[in-house]
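User: For my dataset I need records formatted as: sequence, then structure tokens, nothing else. Please produce one.
Assistant:
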Amino acid sequence: MLQEFKDFIAKGNVMDMAVGIIIGAAFTAIVGSLVSDLINPIISLFMGGVDFSGMYALLGEGEYASIKAAEEAGAAVFAYGRFIMAIINFLVIAFVAFMLVRSVNKMKKKEEEAAPAAPAGPTDNELLTDILKALKK
């Protein structure tokens, strides 16, 4: 069983998947920074300075200056702004993934179009005719 596991881990597909997960995690950090550092300020500019990540509703008693202060005090908060940010992150990641897949598909299509067509072999009728001629001799 241990040998089977070693063989499984050594397969190319598992290694490719591991590399994909590692790159995906790094890519998520890049997209998170893109959204929080570049896209959010632009959205905030058009929305009159609204910061989505700081939007919340307090589920209980008390008043707090920020969501961080409420969380530090142990108050229950409904952090809908973070959910909005997660949706924006998802949309950006999905769009970038779509663009990558689209680019790869275009490259594959160009390669397929550029590749010469394989020469056509004889048809069944031609083969049967040749066999018949050989048998008649």
